[in-house]
Amino acid sequence: MAYIVYENGMSVARWVLSVCLAVIIPTIAWAENMSVGLGPTGHFFLIDGTPQLSPGFGGHVYFDYRWAPQISTQFGIDVTTEGGKGPQAGDNDILFFAIPTVDFKYYFVKSSGRIDPYALLGIGFFMTSEGSADNGTLAMGLGANAGVGVDLYFTPAVSANIGATFHSIGMIQSLSGANNGSGLFPVTASGSVAFHF
Hints:
The protein is mainly β. 10% of the residues lie in helices and 59% in strands. It has one helix and eight strands, in the order αββββββββ. It has one helix at residues 12-31; strands at 33-47, 56-68, 71-82, 94-107, 115-128, 139-155, 158-172, 181-196. The protein has an eight-stranded antiparallel beta barrel with strand order 1-2-3-4-5-6-7-8.
C-alpha cells in the first residue's frame, strides 16, 4: 500500500488515525464514568417542621453515573439519628431516612482537573420513625432537593466529595383524620469517598 508522505515524514494514514483517536478517546473516557461512594451525613433544620427535630448525624451511600462530560445522575440512601425538640422534646433516637434520592448533577467545568464543582436538583422519598416515645413522629413523604458540592480527585479512580443540599419535604403522618400533613426542611451536609470505575 502506498502512502502519501508529508515533509515531516507523517503519512496520511497516520494523520487520520491520530485525529480519530484524539476525538474518540476523550469521548469514551467520559461516556461511562460510574462511581460508588459512602461517608458521613449531618442534618440541621432551617425551619421547624413537624415533627420538630434537632440536628442529627448518620451516613449515606450512593451510586453515580456520569453519562455526559457535565451531567450525571446519582442515586442515594441516607440514614441519620435525630432527637426531638418542641412538642417532641425528650423523644430520642428518631431515624430520618432518605430512601432513595435521585439527583441530577451539573458540573460547571467541562474538562476539569482535580477539583470538579457541581450543582444538583432532584427528588426523594423520606421517612421519620417513632423514636423513644410514641408521640406521632412516624411520617413519610416526597421532597425536592437542591444543592452544591465539589469532587476532589486524588487519582482517576478515587475522589472525595463535600456537599450541602436543601430539602423541602411534604410529610404525611396518617391517612386517616384531618391535619395529618406536615413538612420538613432539612439541610444536609455530607462528605464521602468515592471509587470510580
